[in-house]
Every structure is written in C-alpha cells, then in structure tokens.
Design brief:
This protein has about 325 residues and is α+β, with helices and mostly antiparallel strands. Helices cover about 45% and strands about 20% of the residues. Helix 3 packs antiparallel against helix 4.
C-alpha cells in the first residue's frame, strides 16, 4: 500500500531543494555586485559536466555481451549527435533520439528476437563442442588400442572389456580382465588423468576372484578379498602418481576365527595406505561417505564372461572398441 504521507514529505523536500538552488544565487549575487570569476567559470562548464554525468547514468547498465548488445543505445546516440550537428537544436535532437530509441527497443530489438539468435548460437556451440568431444574420444580410444598393442601380456588370454566413465572427465575409460578363474584377478583400467590426454595411465592389477567395483564419474575403486580367515575392503582412487595407477585412501580388515561364520572376532579400520593410521569405525565410515556419497558402485565381474562383455581381440583394437 502507498504511504501518501511519506510520499508527500519526499515531494516537499525535493521541491524545497530545487527552489533553494534557484533562490540562493539570487540572494548572494543579486545586489548588483560583480560575480566572481570562478562562479562564471562554473556557470560555463557545469552544464557540460552535468550532461556527461547524465550520459554515464543512462549508459551504465548496457552490455555488449548480451542481447541487444547495446545496439539501440548506439543508434540513438548517433541520431542525437547527427541531428544536433544538422539542426543545432538541442530539444529537436533529444526528442528525435528518444523516439528512435523507443521504437528500436519496442519494435525492432524485441527480447524474443534475441532469444532466437542466442538459441541458434547455443545450438551451433553445442555442435562444435560435440565435434571437439568426439575427436578427443577417438584420440583417446586410439591411445588405448596403441597401449594394448604394446602390452599384449596384459590380455593375450580370454579377456573381456567394457567402456565406462570411471573418472570425472568426458572420455570413456577401458576396464578389462581375464575370464579364467583365479584368486588374484588380472583386472586393469586404462584411463587418462589430470587432463593429460597424451599419456595412457594403466591402473592395476586390481580386484580379486575376477571382480572389482568402481564408482562412476568419481574415479574410486572398491576392492574386496577373502582368504586365510580375513575379509578385506579397500577404497582407492585412480592416480597417475602411483606405481600401479591407484592409491588406497582407506581400508578395513575383518578377522574370522572359523570359516567366516557369525560376526568377525576382530575388525580394524585404517585411513590411507598401510596400517599407520588406525581409526574408529565412525571415522572410517565418514571417510567413505566423503569419497562416494550416495553414488552406487558398479561391479565388473569377468569369470567365464557370465555378464556377456565384449572380448578383447585385435579386431576390437582395430575398430577402436566398436566406438
């Protein structure tokens, strides 16, 4: 609701200030005395300064990077300047410039017009981005193929593979492993890390019993194992700085006295690699939560290719894994 009392007070104050600026000079210099030179100087220069301030005020919010890219303002200013040079009439120039500006913003440079232009520009940008992304993907897949061609000892037996986004970039990573039963699984991940798409990083071997898990787009691997009365769990991240392409962030050991039945007799939790920093379960759980949040892990299980993965062959390398 409008506060009329407050509005009236504002109007009265503005009126008094405006009246005062007219009366005060008359009271001071209206007695026939000579007006000081500096006052005369201000009288000649202040109007131009005021006009400059008005121009800055009117143009303060224009943007050259967003629609309509200051085009109406530039045209209107050109009309004002040109009409003044032509007619030498300030009122004529102001009126013509204002009419032209309002016509431009209301009829020519409508918001919908520039929305269509911006949408078209975004579509072009998306197409260019997709093209760049496809080129990078093809380059990286060829990098995997060249790496495997030079390291055939990693996949000469019955080996299967899958392409998935394991780390947080937009290039698919290659995970592969043998299908013959073995406790020490030969599962590997080929990837690119730290934005370096010129060097393939081989992570592995990882997992056990032909299986390992990973968290898509997080670059986190979960490996579990059982044997000799122990059950282990390792959370690791892909790392170009590690000899095996990954480093352990936290892990736990569970010890069973008899055939993994019932509750474990002892559980130990550790942060980092090795067993230097043993922690309570609450701190371990908090570490895991920070690493993976609510993201579900994916299982890569290769034994006898029960999940129907593609086989890693020379033909697959030549075809860049079917991509």
């Amino acid at each position: 609701m409008v506060d009329y009392r407050h509005a009236l007070i504002i109007i009265l104050i503005m009126g008094l200030v405006t009246l005062a600026t007219r009366i005060v000079p008359v009271l001071i210099f209206g007695r026939g005395e000579k007006v000081p030179d500096y006052i005369m100087y201000l009288g000649r220069t202040v109007p131009y300064t005021a006009m400059g301030l008005l121009i800055v005020y009117c143009l303060r919010d224009i943007s050259f990077t967003s629609a309509p890219h200051a085009i109406p303002e530039i045209i209107a200013m050109a009309v004002v300047i040109g009409s003044y040079l032509w007619k030498r009439n300030s009122i004529f120039s102001v009126v013509v410039g204002t009419v032209i500006y309002m016509f431009l913003v209301q009829a020519v440079f409508e918001e919908s017009f520039f929305e269509e232009i911006d949408t078209a520009a975004e579509d072009i940008s998306v197409v260019e981005s997709d093209t760049d992304s496809d080129d990078l993907t093809q380059k990286c897949l060829k990098g995997y193929a060249d790496y495997l061609a030079d390291h055939k000892d990693l996949w000469q037996s019955e080996t299967v593979y899958e392409l998935d986004f394991i780390n947080d970039d937009d290039v698919p990573d290659l995970i592969f492993g043998g299908t013959d039963g073995a406790h020490a699984s030969n599962i590997f991940i080929l990837t690119y890390l730290d934005g370096n798409y010129d060097e393939v990083v081989c992570c592995g071997s990882i997992g056990a019993y032909n299986a390992t898990c990973y968290y898509p787009k997080l670059g986190i691997i979960l490996s579990t194992d059982m044997g000799m009365g122990y059950e282990t769990e390792y959370y690791s991240e892909l790392s170009a700085d590690s000899e095996y392409g990954y480093k352990t962030l936290c892990h736990m050991y569970s010890y069973y006295e008899e055939d993994y039945e019932g509750e474990p007799s002892e559980i130990k939790f550790f942060i980092g690699e090795g067993e230097d920093k043993e922690v309570m379960q609450e701190e371990y759980d908090e570490c895991v939560k920070e690493l993976v949040g609510d993201t579900e892990h994916k299982l890569f299980y290769t034994y006898e290719n029960e999940n129907g993965y593609e086989y890693l062959t020379q033909e697959a390398l030549d075809n860049l894994f079917g991509e």
